[in-house]
Amino acid sequence: MFCSRERAVHQLIYAANGCIAMEKKDVPQDSNAALDGARKVVYAVDEDGKYSTVATTGWAVEEVVTSMAVDHYTQLAQEALLRARRGESSPLEYHMFTRRLNVVTLAQATGKFQWLVKRHLKQPIDQLSPKTVRRYAEALGMALSDLSRLP
Amino acid sequence: MITAESSIIVNSDYVHRHAAHCESGAVSSLLRHYGLEMSEAMTFGLSSALIFAHFPFVKVEGFPLTAYRAMPGAIVKSTARSMGVRMRRERFRDPQAGTARLNELLAQGRVVGMQASVYWLPYFPPNMRFHFNAHNMVAYGREGDDYLISDPIAEHPVTCPAADLQKARFVKGMFAPRGLLYYPLDTPSEVDLSKAVARAIKKTTFVMLNTPLPFVGVRGIRYLAKRIRELGLKSSDARYALLFIATIVRMQEEIGTGGGGFRFIYASFLQEAAEKIGEPRLQEASELMTSSGDAWREFALLGARFCKKKPDVTLDQLAEALLVCADFEANAFRLLRAIRL
Questions:
Q1: Average pLDDT, whole number, for chain B?
Q2: Which terminal CB of chain B, N or C, has fewer other CB atoms within 10 Å?
Q3: What is the pLDDT of residue B136?
Q4: Are residues A85 and A40 part of one domain?
């Protein structure tokens, strides 16, 4: 842990080196895979210290954190897939995670209580009312017949 | 010029501009189209959109909410107020009605701002599609079943099929768009910039330095530092700590912020304001804000290394990097408070 004086020193070092100062020429162009070839805009200064926008293919840091979020859902979906194949949970759970939703967001998207969604994730789909199934299909952007299907 | 045939409506006067942030980009493009030249940075700054907030009790996807800018929708509302633009906002209960109204407005030759969910927009890169419902873009025409969309964070204009757009505009959940459409009814010929700048900076300064809550402003940054330190002490599961840090860094860098959690956009605003109203001390504040942005990027870099499980980065170091950000930010805003525009 730093005391406040050490922090002040720390700060001076940052200010002196400018570390990763956002100068135009220093804007990272790391071809972030998550952007799929698209470019985004960041603000950076030129040699005269004047701000303008620069298009960039992304920063490695963004790729790390974005892929973590993507992988998080992929992993949850894989676990749910195994559970669904063993018959321990509904295919609905698997589809929920592949659509990057969870119990909270699926409940919001369908306008249902979380406890109800949790219960539905454990029930076979054919036990749910047609209206409920339609709501889930709509929130997940799937055809009704695909809901009970697993890869 | 508006070309209106049976199936093709194009507002060809509209100019797409690539922006860093969706909402300020969409609003500045709209204002420019309707005759008020306003850069993205100026739009962002004048609507007092910069903030820092960390609410441990508000969970987004299971993680506490960390925000670097004001609530979605705040820019649309407050730009209108600070510049004297009459902005019309319409929401719809019925998706069909929302689509019909969009078609009607386009047929009238209007260019319209819209709110929608990122997840259901097919032109987004698949790995960037999450359920963020407060994305903003501009519709400037329609070709048969495809809408011509100027998405501020896309480099070039894109198209989106009507069915997908309707789904994206009418998702339910947090920040549900309810088909929000917005467009200026009239724009003033002149804006009293010095007054608008003074008011906007005063508001941001107040929020960042004087909010009587530990979750907001410079105190919020220090509070988050403390929480990160505690995360290391509690023997909670390691995966949670990684995703907790990753979420903060995502909000700061990944999601249309212009880098450094909007700090560089704000620095750009201060610089532009310094020139336009002739107040050189704002330039000084802009440089401090740039340093703050750099410190945030340093934090992001450390955070990503932590997420990659590099052994040389600890939660204590991350907390320390955040305190550096807090110090820079406190300096910048104290200077802004002292300027008394």
A1: 92
A2: N
A3: 96
A4: no
- If one compares A95 and A22, the residue with the highest pLDDT of the two is A95
Tens of pLDDT, residue by residue over B129-163, are: 999 999 999 999 999 999 999 999 999 999 999 99
Q: Taking a contact as any Cβ pair under 8 Å apart, which residues of chain A between 126 and 145 contact chain B?
A: 139, 141
Residue B305 included in any domain: yes
Q: Which of A1, A31, A40, A98 to mutate to test the interface with B (most CBs of B within 10 A)?
A: A40
A99 found inside a domain: yes
Q: Which has the closest alpha carbon to B10: B130, B89, B106?
A: B106
How confident is the model over A23-35, as pLDDT tens digits?
Answer: 888 888 888 888 8
- Statement to judge: residues A109 and A126 lie in one domain: yes
Q: Which of A1, A18, A40 sits opposite B294 (nearest CB)?
A: A18
Closest CA to B137 of B121, A53, B87, B107: B121
Measured between alpha carbons, how far is B235 from B237 in angstroms, rounded to an integer? 6
Chain A partners of B120 at a C-beta cutoff of 8 Å?
Answer: 141
Q: Which of B59, B300, B324 sits opposite A7 (nearest CB)?
A: B324
pLDDT tens digits for A40-89? 999 999 888 899 999 999 898 999 999 999 999 999 999 999 999 999 99
Cβ contacts of B118 within 8 Å, gap of 6 or more: B124, B128, B129, B130, B131, B132, B133, B135, B168
Q: Which of B42, B57, B121, B128 to mutate to test the interface with A (most CBs of A within 10 A)?
A: B128
What does DSSP assign to residue B308?
T
Task: For residue A125, give its domain range.
Answer: 67-146
